[in-house]
Amino acid sequence: MSVKDDSIYIDYMIDCIDRIDEYTQTGREGFMSSSLIQDAVIRNLQTLSESSQRLSDSFKDQQLSIPWRDIAGFRNILVHDYLGLDLEVIWSVVEIDLPGIREALNHSSDS
Fold this sequence. Notes:
The chain has 6 helices and no strands. The chain is mostly helical. It has one domain (3-110): Four Helix Bundle (Hemerythrin (Met), subunit A) (Up-down Bundle), CATH 1.20.120. The longest helix is centred in the C-terminal third of the chain and has 24 residues, at 87-110. The chain is globular. The relative contact order is 0.17.
């Protein structure tokens, strides 16, 4: 995979995080009380995690601050265990994990 291909997926992942930020502007309470917001966030998390699996190994090896295995595992939960999704875990990912992932991706796209 080329650097150009990686940049397409990086941009797409950043776009997913931006959308999630937009959808969750009402905070935890808004997220927890709206199935529409939950669906939009979960869909973008799926897309983000799927895109991460399409990045080259060389890119991932350069971005060790991003938990690639965790993202792949989370994707499997989102896709295959959708009946057992824990909204608290999803909110934690949104609030705690995504800002660091965005920062690392933004930094990598500047390079």
